[in-house]
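To the team - S-adenosylmethionine complex, inputs and output below.
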Amino acid sequence: MAKLALLPTPIGNLEDITLRTIRYFNETAFIYAEDTRMTKRLLDHLGIQKKIIPFHAHNEHKMLEKCIEAIQGEELVVLVSDAGTPGISDPGFLLVRAAIQNSIQVECLPGPTAFVPALVASGFPCEKFVYEGFLPHKKGKQTRLKILSQEERTVVLYESPHRLAKTLEQMQEFFGKTREVCVAREISKFYETYHRGTLEELTNYFINTPPKGEIVVVIKGLGD
Ligand code: SAM
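Output:
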């Protein structure tokens, strides 16, 4: 039976790749990848040679039918994104849905993703949480923030470093200055840091110290 497997890849530290992910890379017929060059680099590091086919936000709709036909002819085909788990703020959902509709077995291996370590290390309740992904850049941002500010559960957002200070500042309007927040930066990398404080404190900090690298914002909910 044909199988599509989604493989999580390291979000920084290459040691985070799992033994099972490596085995699937070895066993797959070919690889669908968000960024073929990045995946080639990872495969070179692992000493694996495989055919890599681009599958990204700009071609996923167009590719879908062709992908399903191609997967149906193979025992195993894998999908990877640039980093972390495919489908989590990355392409993946459309292919998974189409595969299920076409009776293709779907599996996602457990592995790296940025929001889990950020959430767990934030120190905020993580029994229940909301993963929001990226906020809209302009239209709709205020509306999302207003809704999220009423959330009982811990909220997790992805944000780019150059928008971080502005977003924290805008959040104060809805969440208040004293809402507790944690900014996780460069998880699993050399410059990994966690900044914890109130929205006002972290806004001021990041206005004065513009951050670099990749960022997850975790906000304490109204509950607990
Ligand atoms: N699929 C990925 C996952 O499973 O987490 C997310 C891909 S999304 C396009 C990229 C965003 O994830 C970054 O802008 C950042 O918000 C977050 N991210 C990825 N790697 C990170 C890291 N090492 N440290 C902090 N955040 C990270």
